[in-house]
Amino acid sequence: MQLGHNHVMAGNTVHAQSFSAKSAADDYLKKNAAKYHLANDLSGLEYVTTVTTDAGSYVRYQQTVNGSPVFSKQLTATVDLKGHVGLVVSDYMAYTSVERPSDRLTKDQAESKAGDYIKDKGKGKWGTTQNTFGYVILNGKAIPVYKVVIHANEPFGAWEAIVHAGNGRLIDKKDLNQKATGSGQVFLPNPVESSGTAAGFTDNNDADSPALNAQLKNVQLLGLDGTGKLAGQFVAINSKTRTKSSSLIFHYTRSDNQFEDVMAYYHIDTLQRYIQSLGFTNINNRSITANVNTYKQDNSFYSPTKMDLTFGSGGVDDAEDAGVIAHEYGHSIQDNQVPGFGNSPEGGAMGEGFGDFLGATYEDSFTAGGFGHACVAEWDSTSYSSSNPPCLRRLDENKVYPRDAVGEVHADGEIWSQPLYELASALGRDAATKIILQSHWSLTPNATFIDGAHAIKQADQQLYGGRNAKTIGAIFNARGLSAN
């Protein structure tokens, strides 16, 4: 039985001059061990890391059994600048016994069974297979398992299989690639939203047209490494075209596949620079690989195992639409802040909702008018949406939890994206994005919608002294997500 997800809005305080965030968190958890179903000495919790920001610190722990991880079960303690523990989000699961099988599979045997379970065709791999021994907790018992991640070519993607370490039975499997159906020079943000109409715009197998060319904008490509490639501080393009210019001038139209390379570079770089302009230098601050025109399907995804982005070329090429680029970058942001984020259905929906929020607010930042607002990926979706404007998803569907939850992460993501988008309307894009990003550090892989709402309220308290609490409460309460 799940015993975690407790919330504490007041707690331990120590002297600001001498405290360390970890010692403050340890002390608080020991004093409140019964509340969180922990051992009094915190055995069974292994310290992972402390993330320190100007607004506070986030101490992360991993649940363990016999020194091995309980997969995806973590606990975070949010500690303010005075050493006060203001919020605890816990996935910790209590158990009464540990299963000890008489025989244990070898790692090779576990990988073979995992391959069978995902129906891997065995025609090569696009990444190294990962295999880790640990535990899952089922019906109050700690079960020894192998977590095997296979980067398969067929079926394509990163697949995770949880295999019983004794009898080899499949306990769980999942497709780890977080996807958005999509499309994708530079358009700012895409030709539909920048022109204010979808009329006359069709993909036509990547053909140029006067209308589409009229939407091209000249931009600066910052942070290039000087090699002539589209590689720099925050993004490195990997593509079949191997785009390169010794003059560092990359002027193409969409009929040239190099156009999508420039789109991906510019928009990812711009998003990371925006995040840093908000004061965050420790969120995905790295050069992320973006695979462009290497995947022919009408899908894009972030791989948490390879930590890279892939943009499909089916339909409108995904990397021609800044909304799709931003959405996928949103997945990499959350995985960077909370490794394994979105392990639960609601966590997965929060991931999709945050990606849509990031995409929609990024798109809106280029256009003053209202056309396309509360809508994401207008150009990409011309191939599958008949609405005006065409939309991959909307952020104003007025869905209410739990009434409108259907158990599909993209649909349920609209429950989460709307309050985030309304927060940007109420507080401004910068303040809302800063609060939302700050809140992620409080979460765990299995965090729920309610955990997310509490974390946003806590982040506002840390950043702005709680001055937006009433607004946050009203916005989230309207969606059935109490932040109180």
TrEMBL record:
Domain named FTP: residues: 48-87
Signal sequence segment: none
InterPro entries, A to Z: FTP_domain (IPR011096), Peptidase_M36 (IPR001842), Peptidase_M4/M1_CTD_sf (IPR027268), Zinc_Metalloprotease_M4 (IPR050728)
Statement: the UniProt record of this protein carries the keyword Magnesium: no
Keywords associated with the record: Hydrolase, Metal-binding, Metalloprotease, Protease, Signal, Zinc
A Pfam family this chain is assigned to: FTP
Record's keyword annotation contains Lipoprotein: no
SUPFAM superfamilies hit by this protein: Metalloproteases ('zincins'), catalytic domain
Domain of life: Bacteria
PANTHER family: BACILLOLYSIN (PTHR33794:SF1)
Descriptive protein name: M36 family metallopeptidase
Organism: Fictibacillus terranigra
Lineage, top ranks: Bacteria, Bacillati, Bacillota, Bacilli, Bacillales
